[in-house]
Amino acid sequence: MASQFDESDFVDSDYQSAKSPYPATAAQMRTASSVLNRPPTREELETQVNEAHHKLGELRRAQEELERERASLEEARRRRIEFQTGRNEMLQNLTRGVGLLEESEFAARRDAEQMSKTLADLREALCKVQSIQDESWTQENWNVELTRALTTIENSRMEWNAARLKWPLLNGTPQAPVEAKASAQSVASLLEGHTFGQLCKLGLALTWPIVVIGLLALGLTFFFLLRQ
């Protein structure tokens, strides 16, 4: 059975109802133009003000976030600089300190070995001197024993003088050789790294009272000479 279609089935009723058969009139066009050109109302102004406040708030939050980020980056940069500076400083100081202490340790070990040898020699000489028993000498052997004892004492004296030359502590010097070397190294480290001009300024700063007193004495001498 063939289908039967009505002409109304092919017509869009919504489109036909929305389409106006008449063009817009001049009055309608003037009304639309006046709506577009009219000043904003109070409600529209309030809406625009609220939108502007909202945008300003967003900008302030963004600015605060950028400020926090900038402060964090500056703190990170400062800590990085502090790290690099501190590492370089400690590398230099520790390397120099290790070198100085190794040299001082080597000198102290060498001095300790020499002191141990000297101490053994002095103990041996002391034992030889203490072993002299002059009360056991007899009329027959005292001349031989006296010669032997004098030889022992002379050898001991030579050991003592050699030890005194090697160790000033035996002469009553308050500063040991190791301490003297450490003091010399400290003075050298103090003067190290200064130019000739800086050393001259340092010397002038230490001796200027003597220079002033000398100049005053010289001026007084000339003054008295001229008066005579």
Structure description:
The radius of gyration is 54 Å and the shape is elongated. Mean pLDDT is 77; it is low at 1-8 and 14-20. It has a domain at 46-179. The longest helix has 89 residues, at 42-130. It is 79% helix and 0% strand. The protein has helices at 13-18, 26-37, 42-130, 142-166, 177-191, 196-227. The protein is mainly α and 228 residues long. Helix 3 (42-130) runs antiparallel to helix 5. It contains six helices and no strands. It starts with 12 loop residues before the first helix and ends with a helix.
Tags for this entry?
about 230 residues; mainly alpha; 6 helices; about 80% helix; about 0% strand; elongated; disordered N terminus
Q: In short, what is this structure?
A:
The chain is an all-alpha fold and 228 residues long.
Structural topology:
Blueprint: H1 13-18, H2 26-37, H3 42-130, H4 142-166, H5 177-191, H6 196-227
Helix pairs in contact: 3-4, 3-5
